[in-house]
Amino acid sequence: MPSKLHRLLLLLSIGFCICAAEVPSFREAPAFRNGRECPKTAWSSIDKESYNPSIIHIVMTLDIDYLRGSVAGVFSVLQHASCPENIVFHFITTQRSGAELERSINSTFPYLNFNLYHFNANLVKGKISSSIRRALDQPLNYARIYLADLLPAGVRRVIYFDSDLIVVDDVAKLWNIILGSHVLGAPEYCHANFTNYFTPKFWSNPLFAATFRGRKPCYFNTGVMVIHLWKWRQGRYTEKLENWMRIQKRYRIYELGSLPPFLLVFAGDVERVEHRWNQHGLGGDNLEGLCRDLHPGPVSLLHWSGKGKPWLRINSKKPCPLDSLWAPYDLFRHPSLFSDS
């Protein structure tokens, strides 16, 4: 009969195997190099105050469930970039397995310039209200509210990307949009019924409804945003978003996770970006995730917002037609009885 020590060691070894198996394995991506026309530049997280306008800063979150999507997104950005070596990725994670995630990115993209930041989930746990889909309630979904606090002061401007998208154009075109006096730029969808994003309790309260007075609010998707972090810090926008989260806890004025606070603070005050930079909704709605077609017009970015994710559909052998556009960027190393080395 095994001793208590033996059983403990066995449990620990099983737990280690389970933990190690949680992080997917990926094929190594090729190295992407700058063309001759690209300015020679470098950025270091050590010099936190330095600012270099030639560097494109992209923020994405990292977690085990969405890592396959994040890797595909990074790969797509690099593959279509005119100056890939001038891109710095800033990855945000709440996972205790941050070291494993970092090793995964390092092994998949050995030449990538990136930094990893730990987001303290306790910042939002007391402020999150349940929504219509559990994935929307994860603390990491709210990390985009705290970018100005997480990133070094030298990062004055960022592109925020969700982990369920691919870029099929040069990201420098998105980076170079002029924000003017605005803090945030994103594609707007003014045909959407804006009232649907808030509950009747919100619209029946004169104080709440007056929030949009003097503005012409339109829906925008927070999975693709260009954000001026310096202006964000100056305007204390994190506090404004947190305030609406506290009001939500008390009055239940919306149902859609981290999106409505952004609409409450920014809708009607957003620098408009071409729709081509967020062909969103390819994951269907938040309940069933059914297949959808592209919106009319040119495409620079494909976004599987909604319940249906392309890697899950492909795994289940029930992909939607547009999932075939995501598949070429999938670096996931499928389990096999035979080594591919």
Q: Can you give a write-up of this model?
A:
The protein has 341 residues and is an alpha/beta fold. Helix content is 31%, strand content 13%. The strands form 3 sheets. It has a 7-stranded mixed β-sheet with strand order 3-2-1-4-9-6-10. A two-stranded antiparallel ribbon has the order 5-11. Helix 10 packs across helix 11. The longest helix is centred in the N-terminal third of the chain and has 19 residues. It is globular and about 55 Å long. The two termini are 42 Å apart. 36% of the residues are buried.
Task: Give the secondary structure arrangement, pairings included.
Elements: H1 4-22, E1 56-61, H2 67-80, E2 87-93, H3 98-108, E3 114-118, H4 122-125, H5 147-150, E4 157-161, E5 165-167, H6 171-175, E6 184-186, E7 188-189, H7 200-203, H8 206-209, E8 219-220, E9 224-228, H9 229-235, H10 237-251, H11 259-266, E10 271-272, E11 301-303, H12 310-315, H13 323-326
Parallel strand pairs: 1-2, 1-4, 2-3, 6-10
Antiparallel strand pairs: 4-9, 5-11, 6-9, 7-8
Helix pairs in contact: 10-11
Give a summary of the structure in a few sentences.
This protein is an alpha/beta fold.
Features:
341 residues, alpha/beta, seven-stranded mixed sheet, two-stranded antiparallel ribbon, 13% strand
